[in-house]
Write a structure and sequence with these properties.
Two copies of one chain form a homodimer. The first copy, chain A, is an alpha/beta fold. Chain A has helices spanning 20-27, 31-38, 50-62, 85-92, 109-122, 146-149, 214-236, 253-257, 273-276, 283-293, and strands at 4-12, 17-19, 42-44, 70-73, 100-104, 129-135, 155-163, 171-179, 187-188, 211-212, 245-248, 302-309, 313-320. Strand 5 of chain A pairs antiparallel with strand 5 of chain B, so a sheet runs across the interface.
Chain lengths: 321, 321
Amino acid sequence: MIKAKIVSTGFYLPPKIQTAAELAPLIGRSEKWILSRTGVAERRIAEEPMDEMAAKAARKALQNGPPPDCIINASATPLQFIPDSSVFIQETLGYKGIPSWSIHSTCLSFFVALHSAASLIETGTFKRILIVSAEAGTPFRDLDEPESASLFGDAAAAAVIEPTPPGESSGIIDWNMQTWPEGAHLTEFPGGGTRFPPNGPDTTPKHNLFHMKGVKIYKMARALIDKNLSGLYQRTGLSSQDIDWLILHQASGKAVQMSQAYGIPPEKTINIVAKTGNTIAASIPLVLATANHEGKLKRGDLLLMGGTGAGLSIAFSLIRW
Amino acid sequence: MIKAKIVSTGFYLPPKIQTAAELAPLIGRSEKWILSRTGVAERRIAEEPMDEMAAKAARKALQNGPPPDCIINASATPLQFIPDSSVFIQETLGYKGIPSWSIHSTCLSFFVALHSAASLIETGTFKRILIVSAEAGTPFRDLDEPESASLFGDAAAAAVIEPTPPGESSGIIDWNMQTWPEGAHLTEFPGGGTRFPPNGPDTTPKHNLFHMKGVKIYKMARALIDKNLSGLYQRTGLSSQDIDWLILHQASGKAVQMSQAYGIPPEKTINIVAKTGNTIAASIPLVLATANHEGKLKRGDLLLMGGTGAGLSIAFSLIRW
C-alpha cells in the first residue's frame, strides 16, 4: 500500500450547455438516436481556455491550504504544443517557481498522474501535489462522425495528494494497467504531431479531428477488463463485493453500464455521463470530485477507479479513501 | 536517496547530417555566424518517424534483457495528438500489454520521467522501466528565425531503470526543479493545441513552428541556475567539487560553456552540442548514453544532471551512477 491520500478535490463545468436536441441537427441524427447510442443528454462547451478551466477546478481543490509543491497537468487537450500546459495553469493560478509538467495518457492521464504522484509522495520527493485535468476538446469533434461527436463534453477537475497522516488508512492499495497497441487506431487524432504536422502538405482537416470506433472499443474492452480486474483482485485478496464506489471513466452510457457485468451494482457506480458526456482525462477526476462534493465518499471507503483510454489502455486501481 | 539504478542506456542518431554550411543559405546567415552564435557544426535530420527512432534507441538500452514492465515516452515532438506516442513506440518494439504513457516537460521530459520512474521503482510499483526520448523536431524550425533554427537536431535516446541491487551505491541522491511561467513565451510553439488549433481560422503557419528567444533565456537561466544548484548542494552536503560528470541539456554552445561559471570544468562536462545540436528532450539522455557508451561513467561516480526547459524550467539532480 502506498500511503498517499487524496486530501481534497475540485471541479469546474463551463456554463454553456449543449443538449442532445441542439447537437442532433449538427450531426444529422435525432435526439433519440443520440440518447440511445451514447446516453449523453447534455454536455458543457468551454468558452474559455483550458488553463482557466484548470485553474478554477484547482482553486477549489486547493481550498484555503498552502500552495502545492508540484503541479501535474493531466489533460489530453493542451493549450499549445510547447510549453506544456502545466506552465500556463501555474501562471493562471498566480504561482511561480513550482515544479510542473504534464502527463499524457489520453482518458487515463489523471489515473497515471495520480499513481505517479502517489509514488513521488511516498518517497518524500513532494508533500502536496496538485493534479489537474482540463479538457476543451469539443471543437475537435468530427461532426461527420455522429457516434463519437455525440460523446464528448468539456470540463476540468483536480485533486490534491499528500502523505497519509499516521494512524489513517488512506492509500493506494494496488493498480493494474495494460496498454494494447493493437487498439491504437480505435481512438485517434492523427494530426497535431510529426506524422501529420499542422503545416504539412499531406495533412487534411480530418486529420485534426477526433475519431473513435466506439463499438470496437467496447468489444475489446469487455474482453480485457475482466482480466485486468481479476489480476487486481488476486493480488490484493479483495473482490467486487468489497467495493464501496466505482469511479469509472465515463466513456459512454454503455461503458458505464458495463460495470454491472463485472459485479458493481448501479447504486455503487457514480454515473454522470448523461450530464457531462465523455470529458476525456477530466472524466475520472470529475466523477471523483462530484462524488466527494455530494458527500458520498467516507474515509475508509474502498474505491475502484479506472477505465479505458486511447492506446487502447485498460487501468484500474483499488484506493482506500 | 532513492534506490533506483540506470542499468543501461542506448541512443540513435539518424544518418542524414545537415552541416552549418548546408543550413547557412536556408536561414540567410553564414556558416561562421552559425558556429559563433550556436556552436552547432552539424545536426542530424530524421527521415523516419519518431517511434522508429525511439525503438532503435530503446532496443540498445534493453540489450538482451527481459521486456520492461513499464514504458514512458519522454519526448516533446509526438507522432500524433492521440494516442500518446508511448503506444506507437511499444507497437514498433513489438510489445503489447505493457503499461505505457507520456511525460511532457519539453527539454526536461527525460529528466522528469527519470525521477518519476525512480519513485515508481522505489515503491515497488515497477521493476524495469524503459524511458525513451525521440525527437523529430527539425521540420518545426522557423527558418526565418536563424538563432533558433540553427540550434535544433533530431535524435533518440533511452535508459532502463531498475531497483538498485543490495550492496550497490547507485541511486538518486536528490533533485531540484522550478518552473517559472514568466519565461513561458521565451520558448514556444503556440499552435498544436486548443489556443491555435491546426484547423482554427486564426491559426497561421508561424504558429506551427518553434520559436525561442535564446539570449533572454540565457540571461534568465544564469540567474536561476545558481540558486537551484545552491539549494541542491545545501540539502545534500555535496558541492561542485564532488561532481565527476555533468550531464547537461545541450541547449546551445553557450549554455554548455556556462557550466564553467558554476564550477564544473570542461573536462567533466560531456559536450556533444557541436555534433548533435539541441535535440530537445533527447538531449539529456543522449549525453548520458554517449558518455556511457564511451566508457566514461564508472559505477559510484557522482553525476550532476539537468538544465533548462521551456516553461522556463530549471532542474538539476545528483545521481550516484
